[in-house]
Amino acid sequence: MNPNLRYVGEEADFLRNIGFRIQFFRKKAGLSQEQLAEKSGLSTSTIGHIESSSPYPMSIVAILHIANALEVEPYQILKFD
Model confidence at 6, in pLDDT bands (50, 70, 90)? Predict the structure, then answer.
């Protein structure tokens, strides 16, 4: 995956919403970005990029690792109300 790709419109909104959901569940769990990174096996900078307001692509496997670290189901990260 190339994080330098430019996403616009629906793709950008989708990626931003995933990041916002991850941030919501992380804060709800009382974890810092560093703690989530450690629990998920991802780098702190990756978690920071994912949670930023800029769209950041991630694999479905990364979403699975993050969901497991947050003790939520992956669909909860992908569900937007």
Answer: confident
- CA 42-61-57 angle, to 5 degrees, is 75
- Please report, for residues 59, 67, 73, the alpha-carbon distance to residue 63 in angstroms, rounded to integers and kept in the order given: 7, 6, 10
Q: Considering the entire predicted model, what is its pTM?
A: 0.89
Distance of CA 8 to the CA centre of its chain: 18
Tokens for 60, please give them: 């479905």
Query: In which element (H, E) is residue 26 found?
Result: helix 9-28
Tokens of 52: 């930023």
